[in-house]
Amino acid sequence: MSGARLDVDHRALMSYLGAWALSACSPEEAAAVESHLPECARCAEEARRLRDAVGLLHHEEPLNLDPGLRARVLESCLDRRPPKIPVPEWAAAYDTETARLDALLQDIQDAEWHAPVRLRWFEGEEQVGRRTTVAGVIGHLMTVDGLVAVALGLEDPLGARTPAHLVAPDARTEALWNASPVPQTRSVRGPWREQSHRLVSALSLESDRSAALAVAYGGYALPLRDSLLDRAFECWVHAEDIAAAVDYPYDPPKPRHLHGMIDLAARMLPQVIGRRRRAGLGRGVPEPGGVLHLEIEGAGGGDWYIGLDGTTGTEGTSRDAGREVAHVALDGVEFCRLAAGRVPPREAAAGQDGDVEAVHEVLFATASLSRM
Asked: Alpha-carbon distance 258 to 242, whole Å?
């Protein structure tokens, strides 16, 4: 059994950090330091620096740390350290995904901010794209997150005189990219990071008031709760784009956050199917009331019943949803990448049964959820 934790003040704990980094503390001192670090960002940063310095003294050990280590440590801290002002559960995915992306950005080099990234999404039934850089992706995230900021009464990153027509995410992004004659650099990280912190703080302090708000995206709006899930989803997807550009490993979200993202996409599918049908893109539906059973496997999975006539998109049992005419099974991460426009519908690794046209329609409608 370990010794009792020492009751020492902050100054004394700081004096233990050097010995702790060398593994020269007593068990009681080490326990006191390790209990203090999750509560003090200053000491945690100093401890990390000291441990890194100690590592350089051991030349017989490999010096290349696992590049995913920072993300795993951050994930553990987010799980174990409750914030002083609790973040609403419906905003937790956004808080976590922005923190994970920030940890990735901390590790990349100056030149990597100019690494090419191709954004991809679907228009109709065709995949389209736009070339930018790592810095450009962060600018894109910042401008679209700015729609949430505006809904909360915070500053718009495009400025106070933003034209009223600049509501659609792609128009806002192009406005930011075109505002400067030179490409964006790593300096965009600061404003993006500060804005995400302001958003989380505002949501934490006024969660009861803000929960009733809606966020306009140009042509449609989302309740604030769903908008935060949408922003968490896009943050993860673009973090994967950045990680691929700089050859860095990046894990999917936590299962409970992934489940929320999948649920949002599933609830939006009936509306998308309706829009596709009005645009002449939708496939025929055997009869009113038919549903497709969407089975999501793996972490964050579950069962959803998608109304093919634009009426339902519920999680539950088929008896509550309507007559099942088709069944499709997808891995949770694969489904999200399909919804992000990263996987073409014809290439989605899906198990299928029942009405082929209904399966085809739901896969293409899922890809239609994507945007710049």
From this structure: 19
